[in-house]
Design goal:
This protein has 713 residues and is α/β, with parallel strands linked by helices. Strands 14, 18, 19, 20, 21, 23, 24, 25, 26 and 27 form a 10-stranded mixed sheet that branches. Strands 10, 11, 12, 13, 15, 16, 17 and 22 form an 8-stranded mixed sheet that branches.
Length: 713
């Protein structure tokens, strides 16, 4: 088959839809890779539990956002096809077909593998029926003191309409026998503020031995206390997921913060997209729930196992270091350590940071120095996902107290972090920080902080660009890159971008940055076309992308054209990849790999060989329509030759050589594990980074406290 591609950045269509992998099915393949990490015995046991929890939490969000959107398309009979040629209804059917066995497999793995393995380590997950008399007395005491006071049983009868079932809530459908009126239904909501797994006492309790019972089983065993005078003879757990995509009409809203708050309230009442029950629930009760939730049997998921297994994350709090990854101490550049003049260090040369292998404290210390340095006049920063107990917010507040002018863009539309960001925005405003919420119709996803400082030769600017959020907690588990620089051109671009975000500006061209939505896609395609020209003239065209997702049809089309020209293309795509590698005549020179391991691969790196004059861009943007068209994003260049060499040789090449955490995308759309060549030992890139900084450790750096993850352990 011949694929004819037009070399134009405005072209979106390929001749054949089979050149694309469906976005939603690609996401399911990604979450399958997360689940397979739980199955991998090289991970410590409680880390396997964590991967299973992440798998289920990911699935919740997919259902609430992506499956909900497909359902809307199906109901509305939208005729627009996805790039791979499917209607919304066809995609919905395909997603449900793929998800059902995967969910059941996860529960079978929990029951038949993880639970016995936990028991071997004297961590017992018990059913209520397994408890002895002493344990049942303890559970009754716990129920009376901790659970009963916060429960609210809700009857369903002519005087009590069917109650609202909130999003992500776990509930019990209860059937009671009324001597006067016969069978009556009721609903009991499991309190989300209480632990899902209740500790049960053990008679012989050596150090580390633990037992737990699911809270819904404890509640079910004591329902007679909630319905005195009635026989409670049936109860069945069920869980509801609702459409959680907040729709905003920002052009009609005079107050974005108020609009977001209204959207959060409406999220609780979004249409139901999934009802999860156990096989034991009788059909008559299923029908009752389907009717009152106004959904069809297609929206019902029957799960043979616990509902909402994201709560398994609670088990990772158990103090059993032998069942978790070995700890390590991140590197710190000696010239960025506390007590050093961080501004002088940045003036000497650009500083590249690689988290979590290098400490996020360097970023915090940069902002701390700015907040307290008498010569600093102003600080400007974007905040997307801040996290709880943020040291960043506290430093910005201190900067205001110290007389600095501080302006912060807080992105209120960061999905599932909206409430947290609203609280931070109000706290910053109360402190005197100038807080803005971004541009109408766009999310601000760019990660940058600008510091203006008065020095002997005049004002000088310092900037931090990042690929990840200013979140000290996630910086310990997300792999990201950051750049500290005082280069005038980069700093001037940062100033121009802040003027766009906080004021009135129509600037679309920048000295060094690629900025979305103004010109990032065009800039990326221009660079891909440049590699085609290099390949045609000298035969050494090369492209390497390390990204979270590759979805945009225009960028994919450009990569296909490059492959047809013979450009060697390596893509490290952690999550969704709609490009189909290895297709004859179309993508034969493209290899796609995904790395899922201990740390979440989050940095975005764009490498272009450029005939030996290589170019590397880092930033916050994936190649997705939402990033390129609906967000303010930045890609920033690495101009220092030493830093470029470090990224090329010590990061990208190491990741492409990973044979422990890597799976390779096949032309079928499935992934296959990558193994080392015969005679070669396995290579774990994440383990390697723990003991090897991107730049050689300078003399005097203490690495004695750093412990690697043993390969294969």
């Amino acid at each position: 088959m011949q694929y004819k591609l037009t070399p134009s950045s405005t072209t979106t269509e390929l001749v054949q839809p089979d050149a694309y992998i469906n976005r939603e099915l690609s996401w399911i393949e990604f979450n399958r890779r997360v689940f397979k990490e739980a199955l991998d015995p090289r991970h410590p046991l409680l880390e396997c539990v964590k991967f299973l929890s992440i798998f289920d939490t990911n699935l919740d969000e997919f259902i609430m956002i992506r499956l909900a959107g497909l359902k809307d398309q199906s109901v509305a009979h939208v005729t627009t096809l996805s790039p791979d040629g499917l209607t919304g209804e066809q995609q919905l059917d395909a997603v449900r077909t793929e998800l059902a066995p995967l969910v059941q497999e996860s529960r079978q793995f929990w029951r038949h593998t993880l639970m016995p393995a936990l028991a071997d380590e004297q961590i017992y997950i018990l059913d209520y029926e397994q408890l002895d008399a002493v344990q049942r007395i303890a559970m009754q005491t716990y129920f009376e003191n901790e659970i009963f006071p916060v429960l609210t049983p809700l009857a369903v009868d002519p005087g009590h309409p069917f109650p609202h079932i909130s999003n992500r809530s776990l509930n019990l459908a209860v059937m009671i026998t009324d001597p006067l009126h016969g069978e009556r239904p009721a609903r009991v909501k499991v309190p989300p503020t209480l632990p899902r797994l209740i500790p049960a006492p053990l008679a012989d309790n050596p150090s580390g031995k633990r037992a737990f019972v699911w809270i819904e089983q404890v509640i079910a065993a004591h329902l007679s206390m909630l319905f005195p005078g009635f026989d409670v003879w049936e109860s069945y757990p069920f869980r509801v997921l609702r459409d959680a995509d907040i729709e905003l009409r920002e052009d009609d809203s005079s107050d974005l913060l108020e609009s977001i708050e209204q959207g959060l309230r409406e999220r609780r009442f979004g249409s139901v997209v999934d009802l999860a029950v156990n096989p034991s629930m009788p059909q008559r009760i299923r029908d009752l729930l389907l009717e009152n939730l106004e959904i069809t049997p297609e929206d019902l998921t029957v799960i043979d196992g616990p509902l909402g297994m994201g709560d398994l994350m609670e088990l990772t709090k158990i103090d059993r270091p032998n069942l978790k990854y070995p700890s390590f101490t991140p590197f710190i550049d000696p010239e960025l350590r506390k007590g050093q003049d961080i501004f002088q260090a940045i003036r000497q040369h650009d500083r590249l940071l690689h988290h979590p292998y290098e400490s996020f404290d360097s970023v915090v210390d940069f902002l701390r120095a700015a907040a307290h340095d008498p010569q600093v006049l102003a600080i400007k920063q974007t905040l997307y996902r801040v996290g709880a107990n943020s040291p960043i917010v506290g430093l910005l507040q201190e900067a205001v107290e110290n007389g600095k002018q501080v302006a912060v863009l807080v992105e209120l539309k960061a999905r599932f972090d909206e409430e947290n960001n609203i609280e931070w925005a109000r706290a910053l405003e109360r402190s005197g920080v100038h807080v803005v919420y971004g541009l109408i119709g766009l999310k601000t996803h760019a990660k940058l902080a600008l510091v203006v400082r008065r020095e002997a030769d005049g004002l000088r600017r310092y900037v931090h660009f990042g690929t990840g959020n200013y979140n000290a907690a996630t910086a310990r588990i997300y792999e990201d890159l950051g750049l500290l620089s005082s280069r005038p051109d980069l700093c001037a671009d940062a100033s121009a971008l802040f003027n766009l975000l906080t004021g009135y500006s129509r600037q679309s061209a920048y000295r060094k940055l690629l900025v979305a939505p103004m010109g990032m896609r065009a800039g990326m395609i221009e660079r891909i076309e440049r590699e085609i020209a290099v390949q045609q003239s000298s035969g050494n065209g090369q492209i390497i992308f390390k990204i979270n997702a590759l979805v945009d049809p225009k960028v994919i089309s450009a990569l296909y054209r490059a492959s047809q020209a013979g450009v060697q293309i390596d893509l490290i795509v952690r999550g969704i990849c709609c490009l189909r590698p290895g297709m004859p005549g179309l993508s034969e020179t493209i290899r796609v790999r995904s790395i899922v391991g201990r740390f979440l691969e989050h940095s975005r790196i764009y490498y272009f060989g450029n005939g030996g004059n290589e170019e590397i861009l880092l930033g916050s943007a994936d190649m997705m329509q939402r990033n390129l068209d609906g967000r303010v994003e930045t890609l920033f260049p690495i101009d220092d030759p030493l830093l470029r060499a470090a990224l090329r040789d010590n990061l990208l090449k190491r990741m492409l050589g990973d044979t422990v955490n890597t799976r390779e995308l096949q032309v079928s759309g499935n992934y296959a594990r990558v193994f080392p060549d015969p005679g070669e030992p396995p290579f774990d890139s994440q383990s390697w980074f723990i003991t090897h900084p991107l730049l050689d450790a300078e003399e005097g750096t203490d690495t004695s406290t750093i412990s690697a993850i043993p390969s294969g352990a």
